[in-house]
Amino acid sequence: MDRSDIQLILNHLNLSEDCVANIYHHGSWVYGTNKPNSDRDIFIITRSFYQNPLQFWTDFDYFHQHEVYKLLDKYDVCIYSIENFEILLENSYLMAVQCVFLPDEYKIKEDIDFRQIYLDKYYDILGLKRAAFYEMYRDIKLYNPKTNSDDPLHNSMPNEHRQSRRKHVLKNLFHGIRYLDFVDQLIQTKSIYDYKRVTYIFNQMKEILGDPGDQSSMKCVVEFVRAKSDEFKSRLDTLVPTDNITGTFEAQITFDCTQNPEQVIEKLKRACENTKYNLLLIQLDTKQGNKRLQQFMTSSFHCGEYPSIVQQIKEEAHQHFQEFNIIRIKIKSSTSNVCIPQKDIDMKLFWNKGRNYFEFNYHLSLKNDPQGEQIEHYVFSIRTKAVPLWFNYIIKFDWLNTIIIIINIDFALFL
């Protein structure tokens, strides 16, 4: 860029050179995706202590409100105080992180070595993976498959607007791919050594879209990007596993006791004696009048790592209970296990929402309530105050002739 423009930019922003610590030139001119008339993206880091606190989006502290100054018909300028810029680095905000690893030619001014500060204080491989997955998640959402050539609203748009929209989506989809690549480099080398490593993918995307392109070719671009995204995510999953849970797991095995239930129960009791398997009775309230269903299951605890422990539990169950008809094996992880997602955003980005949910369990002893009057009152109270998707009782027998009832309320918190 023309270095003589820097003073003009500072004058427009009423900034003196003394109050500016760092100036970074990033964006398409660095990635090799620019055109001769492309705007240039500038980050200015100031020594000011008066910049307002960052206002982050509600899902987690990453994307935030910020002002972009469009100057001299060719510069898009963002200004951050030193304190706010460090917050962005701490949060693995990739637009900020990429700046500190820029080649020297794109560091217009660098009084503070944020690269070393980042590596010493804020480098976080899980945070980097979370950021890259979220960038890709956000960029994919920009594509709206409901907008098609048969949509009257779509047809009413000026052709120039549709083309502009497609270019915007194309650009952001590539941003997602590029950030996945940056994080791959950062995790493996603690650096971004090649800003143009995936530029060829952008060229492939443009070829698939065509000029000017249409909704059909845009759909092909999105499918191509999803495939490339899956490749990068798979590589990052290998580098930073986020779905391997280590610790204690409870296995609940449900049996078919519809035929000769009394005989099956007695047989199950004998099969569970002097083993790690505890026999449970489930009373299911179907909310259909007074109709209740009963199921019989066992509970056992196992130590290991998910997902490999799944096959281990399955084999043990079928071997020990080979004389019984097993309906289902449910595996529950302890919340204290290692690598349990700590944030809602991790559930959204790293986990299959179709196989994970939370349960709220209430354990009540009926030792002093042999007639069950207290439990009936408690169940009625919960039913009138909550709106669960499923409600059941687990009646657990111990061998001291006491009964414990566990009320399970599955709110099915799919994230």
TrEMBL record:
GO molecular function annotations of the record: nucleotidyltransferase activity
InterPro entries found in the cross-reference section: NT_sf, Polymerase_NTP_transf_dom
Annotated Gene3D superfamilies: Beta Polymerase, domain 2
Polymerase nucleotidyl transferase domain segment(s): 17-80
Superkingdom assignment: Eukaryota
One Pfam family hit: NTP_transf_2
Protein name as catalogued: Polymerase nucleotidyl transferase domain-containing protein
Organism: Rotaria sordida
